Amino acid sequence: MVSNKSLAALFEPGSVAVIGASATPGKIGNIIVSNLLDAGYTGKIYPVNPDPGEILGLPVTQDVADLPEGLDLAVIAIPPAAVVEVMKDLAARKVKAVAIITAGFREVGREGYYLEEEIAKIARDNDIALLGPNCLGLIATDSDLNASFATGYPESGHIAFFSQSGALCVSILDWALGNNIGFSKFISLGNKAVLDESHMLDYLAEDGQTNVILGYIEGVSDGKRFMESASAMTMKKPVVMIKSGTTASGAKAASSHTGAIAGSDQAYDAAFRQTGVIRVHDVASLFNLATCFSTQPLPKGPNLAIITNSGGPGILAADATEKSGLNLSSLTARTSKALREFLPAYASLYNPIDIIGDASAERYARTLEVVAKDELVHAILVLLSPTASAQIKETAQAVIEIAEKLDKPVFACFMGDKVVGPGKRMLQDASIPVYSFPEPAIAGIEAMYEYHERRNRPAPAELCIRRDIEAARTVIADARERNALEIVEFQAQGLLNSYGLPVPKTELARTSQQAVEAAERIGYPVVLKIASPQISHKSDVGGVRVNLQDSSEVVAAFMDITSRAQRLRKDAFISGCLVQSMAASGSREVIVGFKRDDQFGPLIIFGLGGVYVEVLKDISARLAPLTLDDAKQMIREIKSFPVLRGVRGEQPVNFAALEEIILIMAQLALDFPEIDEAEFNPVLVNPDGAVVADVRVILAPQEKAAENGDA
Amino acid sequence: MVSNKSLAALFEPGSVAVIGASATPGKIGNIIVSNLLDAGYTGKIYPVNPDPGEILGLPVTQDVADLPEGLDLAVIAIPPAAVVEVMKDLAARKVKAVAIITAGFREVGREGYYLEEEIAKIARDNDIALLGPNCLGLIATDSDLNASFATGYPESGHIAFFSQSGALCVSILDWALGNNIGFSKFISLGNKAVLDESHMLDYLAEDGQTNVILGYIEGVSDGKRFMESASAMTMKKPVVMIKSGTTASGAKAASSHTGAIAGSDQAYDAAFRQTGVIRVHDVASLFNLATCFSTQPLPKGPNLAIITNSGGPGILAADATEKSGLNLSSLTARTSKALREFLPAYASLYNPIDIIGDASAERYARTLEVVAKDELVHAILVLLSPTASAQIKETAQAVIEIAEKLDKPVFACFMGDKVVGPGKRMLQDASIPVYSFPEPAIAGIEAMYEYHERRNRPAPAELCIRRDIEAARTVIADARERNALEIVEFQAQGLLNSYGLPVPKTELARTSQQAVEAAERIGYPVVLKIASPQISHKSDVGGVRVNLQDSSEVVAAFMDITSRAQRLRKDAFISGCLVQSMAASGSREVIVGFKRDDQFGPLIIFGLGGVYVEVLKDISARLAPLTLDDAKQMIREIKSFPVLRGVRGEQPVNFAALEEIILIMAQLALDFPEIDEAEFNPVLVNPDGAVVADVRVILAPQEKAAENGDA
């Protein structure tokens, strides 16, 4: 654990030592001292170097042991082999935080890995907030702290940024310098030996200077902690992140459909969505959203009004709006009436509100004032094309003055660059996001609206799934005893029953005579399925026969199924056949499954059965535990949802029954870490209810089951 | 028709008259003259105004009649009511081209519409190339011509731009001025009374100064001409266009599935795709592609090599590549060997090739030289993060020197802005597209690769569809005689037969006895379908019964179907039932249909039947006439294609049979303009072949049928 006190020492140190400080310009140990001085750091700086003298005017401390006890921050830039000893010395001096710039650890192989583990242990044992190793350092503008070897120091601002890639830190810092983007904190995480993205989220949630957080990660260090930190964080401040390496995933061999479909990138998608982290896929979007969130109030609904002095650009903005999750707002009759009073006859009073090419700043101002009062409108985009009569600076000034009195977000798109430039700079300086073309403005407003929606969702109700865990445990223990890694349908009935899952009437028949008796108890028509612990892909051996109408058909099917299975699978012990009631006609097939993600635990998936899942990959996914809302969304967000809602006058299926099954699947996954994958496939659902018509459960090997339990 | 001579006069005029020239600064008639002078136009300029004297130092011509005969270009900026008379006078003086800046025509209502029609007629009758009205004018940098009232004059360049929106012209010009984008021609089309996008494409195809064409349109004036002009154009030069108003379409009521699904935006998509026009959806993409196409050679394949000095940015670029239609290129053993000789041990020799943070310009140069020689590599992206040791300008210089000797495209991404700025400017000046972040670079290379692929596709073979048009015409004439606007299945058999379409064995039975006889000829099992000219949605009245096994089932079904239809549809005349052979089990249902688009003619669609089309809107579309390639692509580009290719070891369906049916549908649409919509639904296809199992044909009302014929 890293205490808050240590983290505070990292970001707001009263004094900083630079281990490996150098008098030679260009050396990293020199750049760091010089960066500290240039940023105007007012705390005490201790350059540490075995050679006596001065470095950049500061007296050198020759030994770590000579540093004052309880020093806040030490920055280390010495060869990797020497770092362990220095860490021990720093711990002895009760240093609170350390940033290790030095590379040559985990990233270079086995030896480096062990070095890093040793360093991390020293840090953890002594409550040292350890940043890195193999990082650029950190910048905290409100402490005037540049404890990095980066070139350039950003303006102060309200955006915090952390990155797992040092190169991306350098690039983004350089880009920000050219684009006047300010930062509160700028952090290079490096190898994340101790401090990782979760610590940053925890700390920045409480940081008064930060109001939006950006992150670049290639993976999280600890899925569960990330979920907790991110969930807490996003209720306070928006978090926007890039997770790279999206495409090289999910290629692992898997034994269920769920396993084949649900990749690690889907787990990240689910983790971000469930915690409210906004995921973007490129750096431009990252900073677009940062600007939007850090400057404008959140829209309280999806309705956007567009005010424009030209048709074509208005259409472009309307197109982008229609493609987004926003609506082109309607206007109240009162608004239309008020606009009609002063707008010219050719103006369009519908949204986009076209106030025509000769619109003066005053016409923009009056229109904006009227539209902003409309309670149907949640956000406003002011579009200006540099027509001959456009009053660019005056319009910018009018927008600024009106917007600052509003609690609705106002965005501007001044189409162009050179002539509109002065107006754009005025808007930018006044914290109104301004664009050359409309599309990124719409993307920004959409993200802000979604964030607002999520933050205002009522807290989910506590769910209680009734189940008989002991009975379920027996089923799994039986499989373990047989050394089986798979529990097939006829063995899984006990598991399904112990979770109260709806199943078709089912009996195991060991002879054709038993099958007929069972069919008579169940009622015709029935289904027969091969029952063998070794046969999980039943249709591959012709092991399923449906719609059997009478005893003669049942007898024939029993003989056929069992003899064929014996012939095709000489390895298999045939227990007989399962006799099952037929699903009501008109039922839809869906799949409910889960796969245990290495990082985030059980990833629950839902989709329509058959080719929808296999060919179209039309599935939804969430990480357990699930809320009822999660289950509802999972059903509704698949593309083929209309099939469940009913097309051409069909009745909708029983959604509540499906939601229940999804929630039970999540509970099962949480209850039994020793299950690696499970799948109800198909679940048959119709307007009356749903039944789990087949099931497969894949157990983890013994040694992995223990790990799953820890995760 | 507009002759080439007149078009040439518009773009390269030897002399220009400005009708409505004014001495008052700020007036449009003054700005135009001033713009002509400022751009350094060397031809003669005639300001025309009733008041004598000078305008900006040029002697005023008081009457159009006093202009020299055969003048090249007149720019008109006088009130709309006066334009018709001036046009007549200009025609009398044999003026070759006219740009009407004046607004107040078609866009303001009926009166303006008639004025515009009159002006257009004068232009057409006298071979005057008429631009506008209601436009900004035009710029042709190689003629030093600024015949517009735009603010600012762009640099000379190789990009031509035309736009239907004047405001977008102004905005883009302003943006280009701020971003050093040069233009060959810059054209505001306005109301397109005579000259439209097709004329521009025709002219610019031959324009020596232009090597890439950009356009913004809200619609085309003439679909057929556009298809011809664009097809010819894109074989010579790349065309990139925005068509706006994408979302407000296709809402028309329609009587077939095809009609309900195929909107006008899909017709535009098809038109662009079939002609090779690259469609983008925002202005940023428009200019990104313009820069790529106008500076670098086309990649001859999809394989991209990425050279980077940092991991994180390399992953971002690899992610973007994997999501695109490009591949991360493999490298030959020779390349790997050559790289290993000089790259440091930690360098990654796999793509992205990571030459590590301390890479010098020389290391970049050697790597680029080796990789460029690899025959597996078709395009190269050089990524640079501004690490402490990055040699930014030197690396830019090295890339420039190597790239100019290559016939492979080289793109650069210098991550950042301030420090990397000088390097970026060097690359930009040397015509190497350079970016702050990798994603738009990948998008540019992808578009260039696709363009290369398309242009090098072999010319399609001529198709000949055998058919008996006279027999088909009889079927339609019969319907016309009955005043019917729909031809239902049992009446359409003659139509299907005359096109040689494969159909199930089908007979019309008027009595149950005839039905049994027919079933016996056809062979059991059979399908019975209600036959009534008034009933097109047969299932709605329970009018279809499948899998009838014997005569008693046929008799019962016949009685049931016909009596139910009589009861439910008292208006319907019941002809009896169709008796049809059953499709082989395991057949897939697909839909082939067409809908006549107002602008582009028959839009052919293809999709899997049932919910695939209705719910998932998973269809492909092309405009007739189709090539065999078009038909092949239509089948293969739907998302559910794997269902047809076969999943889990199934045989693929008979694609050739499907292609044939699609091509016949296109031919039918071309042969009979009086058909508005038609649909084969379902077509049943299996590995052996395909049959058209149901059909519906919607006729155009008589008056519209004539129009369709002209289109």
Automatic annotation (TrEMBL), chains A, B:
Entry keyword set: ATP-binding, Ligase, Nucleotide-binding
Gene3D superfamilies assigned to the protein according to its UniProt record, in alphabetical order: ATP-grasp fold, A domain (3.30.1490.20), ATP-grasp fold, B domain (3.30.470.20), NAD(P)-binding Rossmann-like Domain (3.40.50.720), Succinyl-CoA synthetase domains (3.40.50.261)
Residue span(s) of domain ATP-grasp: 493-706
Taxonomic superkingdom: Bacteria
One family name in Pfam for this protein: ATP-grasp_5
InterPro entries in UniProt: AcCoA-synth-alpha, Acyl-CoA_Synth/Transferase, ATP-grasp, ATP_grasp_subdomain_1, CoA-bd, Ligase_CoA_dom, NAD(P)-bd_dom_sf, Succ_CoA_lig_flav_dom
PANTHER family xrefs: 3-HYDROXYPROPIONATE--COA LIGASE [ADP-FORMING], ACETATE--COA LIGASE [ADP-FORMING]
NCBIfam families recorded: AcCoA-syn-alpha (TIGR02717)
Protein name per UniProt: CoA-binding protein
Biological source species: Oceanidesulfovibrio marinus
Lineage: Bacteria, Pseudomonadati, Thermodesulfobacteriota, Desulfovibrionia, Desulfovibrionales
